[in-house]
Please model this.
Amino acid sequence: MKRNPNKIKLSKEELIYQAVISLFLILFLIICIVPFLYVLGMSFTSEGEMIQRNYFVIIPREPILAAYKYVLNKKFFLSMGVTVARTLLGVVAALALAVPAGYILAKQDLPYRSACMIFFIITMILNGGLIPNYMLMTRLKLLDSFWVYIAPAFANTYGILVVKLFVEGIPSDVTDSAELDGASELQKLVYIAIPLLKPTLCALGLFAAVTHWNAWFDALVYIRNEALYPIQLVIRNLLIASSSGDMMSNVNTYAKMTSESIKMASVVIAVLPILCIYPFLQKYFVHGMYTGAVKG
Model:
């Protein structure tokens, strides 16, 4: 077998360094995967096997689906539809104003540009708190409405600043040549800035999607109609009810199912959609973190 002449021979110190790094990454991977496998395994485990194995099961001997049958009811699918609609519209809302506002703030000749920047940064750092926000939603007549999830998403100050930093990095020769060809600011935004912003927009969209998917506190505060509950709030209420024993009478109607398996099944259902989407958007996530951290 011929040796590859282009292969770099590593020194002993470099080999030790790579071995240590590889060991650290393997341990970190185990730390991340084992808890999820534990939750997944417990969601398929019957009461008898949990007791027999001291409530620590990763691979159940006799998997059951009773917990998932209990969780996946009509209320679950209704709340899932609310969450999906909220996530999609929330992503659109998060980008709708962030892109044009960030593009405008990137203009060096913008009047009162520094004052606008200070205003946006102050609103990002300081928050009025729960009571002022509740009063604002009341004045806007958004209480107990689906749009109470979407309206605050337009105030995406972080997205505005990230877009601004990226637009400032576009070579001036590109925009100057477009201006010489008679392109307006809107045309430069649509045909130059947005195509170059695609990775950044995907990263910001992913941030917004994860935020809306995991949100439940705003629904707890602003919503009274259970038909508008997002999936995370439904799962939260389910976990509280299973912990307090309020549903034990219902649990007994399903053979071998326990409140512990219901909790685990709820967690798996809540996490699974994001786990399926994230690998396809990981490169954009990394790019967005790089853009926000380095260009500033």
About this structure: The chain has two domains: 12-52, 66-294. The chain has 15 helices and no strands. The CA atoms of residues 73 and 79 lie 10 Å apart. Residues 259-294 form the longest helix (36 residues).
